[in-house]
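Revision sheet: structure tokens.
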Amino acid sequence: MKKIIISVFGPDRPGILAAVSRILFEQDCNIENVTQTILQSEFSGSFIAEMPVNLTSDALCCFLSEALTPMRLQVNVKHLEISPPALGGKPVEPFVITTRGPDRKGLVANVTRIIAGYGVNVTNLQAAFKGGQNPNDNIMIYEVDVPVDIDSHAFHRDLRDKAAELGLVISIQHRKIFEAINRV
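Predicted:
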């Protein structure tokens, strides 16, 4: 078996996951990981699957496209390159950075520039921008892996300074604390 990553995107509608998973099953593929979301009215999904050695990624892409093109969906299939962890095996601590504030261009670019500058890896980002000046309508949640050897005080200070410059309220919490506080 060889691993592949499949990306599917296009207008949302019921049955997309059912169609993709059916085709993968019919082609003897085993889904290992799935992430999918709806961004406004668009479906976006990524699948990691094991594929039998006698099936090519081009052939699988054709099977998927044949079924998904009538649904106005686009498909990309590529071999998954197994690479070392993003931070080269350094010990990390999981944190959640949350910002709230008025919507404007460049928020994600400015915040992620600070994050990347410290060698911190963003593992998940959720942004809900509804426009306008109501800070409760515009929220970004960054899940990050912070190397334990960085200057955490400087990292937090730089994030807070950038948030203040952008008119954002920021919270930086260890993931365990965030989950405990936000448990539903």
